[in-house]
């Protein structure tokens, strides 16, 4: 690292998903690591008030404004609080975060318009207003995706083979939207056929990108695998998109994550699907394990300098297997992990009590506990290590997706068939 942070105070502003970031930074040399996620409500919940509590080296606070004068760096790990980020920066504080650039992700209609303005290809889209209009427009469509801006708490993007198979989903959405069911705008997006999803999975600083990168594939909600790579060796499609978005990111003043889901076909054509300005799950857990200079990245990034990652292992694979349990949808769950493996099990909405990690139930958490992560020069050794750790987690049923590694291997091989260059072979 460039400098010591033992006399510095960092404060992470989060929405509950990423308390492991605070723990990693604290163990990585930050002298005072504060963590806050919103808990205020007409009827406050203990489970919201305790996220991040008890983590080694981390102090959970009740109000970021109460510690404002003491904080040297604020880290915003999600898209919210654009106004707070802007305000803190205007008051002279170092701030890592997307600022109002979170809209690049949250406003899906605006994202499409921006892509068209800067020449980034996107799939054909059609708008529908209200559930009745959505049903009408889906009657003669097959193999499309339904998206909405911002309200991920009501429903996530979902696939429609054809209308008759989607009726139960549409009924639930109509119920959940209540009196706004005929006012909500929906995006109907065509599928980009015979393609594989790829992404650049690191940061940018006001449109500047580091010289080192992580290149990865995600099996949605199941598994993420990546390899270290020189930025100049990234697939041309990623470099093209990032270069076109650089001016947009600079205009927002965004200092943040910037993976954009891209699908590429065998002709080398690509389309942009969805950007991610915040930290992501999966992906963040892998970065926390693989990169050792994150305090520097955030500190100097907040000053406008885009640092390269320093990887724990050069030319390495990283793998992150999502773990879940239906129990945590309604009740807290203890996750017993051998102490020497604790850094390889990253949990969401979590706290520690008497040294035992607990995942706390939250609205829309969907039963996800977190991830098991590993890094190694060998992909197969990453896989074996994760499977070994999975067998050592105690505390009741923990579910994973056993075929996820096989599907990743198939997609990686498909990219090689498509002519994507510089990809290491799976060994």
Describe the structure.
- Helix content is 28%, strand content 25%.
- With 427 residues, the chain is an alpha+beta fold.
- The protein has three domains: 9-99, NAD(P)-binding Rossmann-like Domain (Rossmann fold, 3-Layer(aba) Sandwich), CATH 3.40.50.720; 124-190, ATP-grasp fold, A domain (Dna Ligase, domain 1); 195-417, 2-Layer Sandwich (D-amino Acid Aminotransferase, Chain A, domain 1).
- An eight-stranded antiparallel beta sheet has the order 16-15-10-12-13-17-22-19, with helices on both faces.
- The model has no long low-confidence stretch (mean pLDDT 94).
Can you tag this structure with a few keywords?
427 residues; alpha+beta; Rossmann fold; D-amino Acid Aminotransferase, Chain A, domain 1; eight-stranded antiparallel sheet; five-stranded parallel sheet
In short:
This protein has 427 residues and is α+β, with helices and mostly antiparallel strands. Helices cover 28% and strands 25% of the residues. The chain has twelve helices and 22 strands.
Layout of helices and strands:
Blueprint: E1 9-13, H1 19-27, E2 32-36, H2 46-49, E3 58-60, E4 73-76, H3 82-90, E5 94-96, H4 103-106, H5 108-118, E6 125-129, H6 131-138, E7 144-147, E8 158-160, H7 163-177, E9 185-190, E10 195-200, E11 203-205, E12 212-219, E13 223-230, H8 236-252, E14 255-257, E15 260-265, E16 270-275, H9 284-290, H10 294-301, E17 317-324, E18 333-334, E19 345-347, E20 350-353, E21 356-359, E22 368-376, H11 379-390, H12 404-417
Parallel strand pairs: 1-2, 1-4, 2-3, 4-5
Antiparallel strand pairs: 6-9, 7-8, 7-9, 10-12, 10-15, 11-14, 12-13, 13-17, 15-16, 17-22, 18-21, 19-22, 20-21
């Amino acid at each position: 690292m460039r400098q010591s942070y033992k006399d510095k105070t960092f404060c992470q502003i989060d929405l509950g998903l990423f308390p492991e970031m605070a723990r990693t930074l604290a163990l990585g040399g930050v002298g005072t690591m504060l963590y806050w996620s919103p808990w205020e409500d007409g009827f406050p919940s203990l489970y919201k008030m305790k996220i991040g509590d008890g983590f080694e080296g981390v102090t959970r606070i009740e109000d970021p404004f109460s510690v404002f004068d003491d904080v040297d760096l604020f880290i915003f790990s999600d898209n919210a609080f654009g106004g707070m980020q802007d305000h803190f920066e205007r008051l002279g504080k170092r701030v890592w975060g997307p600022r109002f650039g979170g809209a690049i992700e949250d406003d899906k209609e605006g994202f499409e318009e921006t892509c068209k303005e800067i020449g980034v290809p996107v799939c054909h889209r059609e708008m529908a207003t209200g559930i009745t209009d959505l049903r009408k427009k889906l009657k003669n469509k097959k193999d499309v995706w339904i998206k909405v801006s911002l309200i991920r708490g009501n429903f996530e993007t979902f696939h429609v083979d054809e209308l008759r198979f989607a009726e139960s989903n549409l009924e639930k959405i109509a119920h959940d939207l209540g009196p706004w069911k005929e006012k909500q705008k929906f995006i109907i997006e065509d599928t980009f056929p015979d393609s594989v999803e790829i992404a650049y999975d690191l940061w940018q600083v006001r449109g500047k990108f580091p010289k080192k990168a992580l290149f990865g594939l995600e099996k949605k909600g199941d598994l993420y695998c990546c390899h270290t790579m020189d930025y100049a060796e990234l697939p041309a499609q990623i470099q093209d998109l990032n270069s076109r978005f650089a001016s947009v990111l600079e205009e927002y003043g965004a200092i943040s994550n910037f993976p954009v889901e891209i699908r590429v076909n065998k002709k080398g054509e690509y389309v942009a699907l969805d950007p991610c300005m915040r930290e992501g799950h999966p992906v963040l857990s892998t970065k926390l394990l693989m990169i050792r200079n994150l305090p520097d990245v955030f500190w100097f990034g907040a000053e406008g300098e885009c640092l390269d990652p320093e990887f724990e292992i050069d030319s390495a694979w990283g793998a992150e297997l999502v773990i879940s349990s239906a129990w945590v949808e309604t009740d807290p769950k203890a996750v017993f992990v051998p102490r020497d493996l604790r850094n390889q099990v990253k949990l969401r909405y979590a706290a520690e009590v008497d040294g035992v990690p607990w995942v706390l139930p939250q609205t829309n958490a969907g039963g996800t506990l977190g991830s098991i992560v590993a890094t190694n020069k060998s992909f197969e050794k990453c896989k074996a290590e994760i499977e070994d750790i999975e067998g050592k987690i105690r505390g009741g049923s923990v579910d994973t997706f056993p075929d996820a590694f096989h599907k990743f291997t198939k997609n990686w091989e498909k990219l090689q068939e498509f002519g994507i260059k510089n990809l290491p072979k799976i060994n």
